[in-house]
Prior knowledge:
Layout: H1 23-29, E1 34-39, E2 42-55, E3 83-88, E4 92-98, E5 106-115, H2 118-128, H3 135-139, H4 142-148, E6 167-170, E7 179-182, E8 199-202, E9 216-217
Antiparallel strand pairs: 1-2, 1-6, 2-5, 2-8, 3-4, 4-5, 7-8, 7-9
Amino acid sequence: MDAVRGSFLPGCPLPAEFYQLSALEAAPLLMGQILVRHTLEGDIRCRIVETESYGGVEDKGSHAYGGRRTARTEIMFGEGGTAYIYLIYGMYHCLNVVTGPVGNPQAVLIRAVEPLTTADETLMRRYRGTVAKRPVDLSGGPGKLCRALQIDKTQNGLPLTQPGGPLWLEGGPPIAEGLVQAPRINIAYAEEYAAKPWRFYLQGNPYVSVADPRASRWTGIAKK
């Protein structure tokens, strides 16, 4: 693995050392990688096109801020490579990739994905349960993508490292250009951490939830 460029073998599970990275290191490297959801009707493969980093006890935007350990956040303190899934507003699930060593709560929120094929899109539209006129309406946002992929709390805590399981990650083609970073969304409560440019997305991709005029090109090292 090239820790700067995020070069992974296409179609192969992401290497174990990737999950030892901090969330801020892992979030841009997850861009372009493939999220696979196994369903009774077949596997759905989609490319990750937007992420947000939530890392460490110092991040006021994180559920684990200040070292907060609850039944919900305990997964964040565990070994990297598992799924952290929670419910917001009582109706929308959010999928996170836990990273970092045991005891250091790090997680990357998956905000948007793009289906790889027409067959993948067809299944996602069926599971989405509503008419999605634009790509962003299908899977542009954490709640939307979870509905389109039938992801809920039954997958919470499952490993993302095992192909053939309910949910896993594998390498995708390298991203040549267009990766930007911007402030995270809807976290005004995070005070000075709300302005941190810890959201990453592919500029111009129609599945991205929100384009930000403040976005800047990612140069290989995430701004703090």
